[in-house]
Amino acid sequence: MSSILIFCxxxxxxxxxxQTRDGLCxxxxxxxxxADLRNEHARLWRKRERYRxxxxxxxxxxxxxxxxxxxxxxxxxxxxxxxxxxxxxLRKELEAARGQRYNIRGV
Length: 107
Ligand SMILES: [Zn+2]
Fold this sequence. Notes:
Elements: E1 5-7, E2 14-16, H1 26-33, H2 35-53, H3 59-79, H4 83-106
Antiparallel strand pairs: 1-2
Helix pairs in contact: 2-3, 2-4, 3-4
The structure holds zinc ion.
């Protein structure tokens, strides 16, 4: 089966047209779909670090973070049918969330 290569209109990467929707590659669709959850994740993480530095109980925030991560995983699974790929994307998103956090903290 031959597939036409097109440029993703977000990241500009060349991808087979069969893997795109609305001109976006899978990676960009995943990133967009979890953007709000990633911000929420970063917010909770900062909150937890603040609480921890005050020796407050962080157990509840830890559970909230886990819930956000679950929701990210669910959204990614809706976009990526292959379970192994979905796990890879989730890992990447969580790493990105961590990077975002460090950027904010580094300011
Ligand atoms: Zn893209």
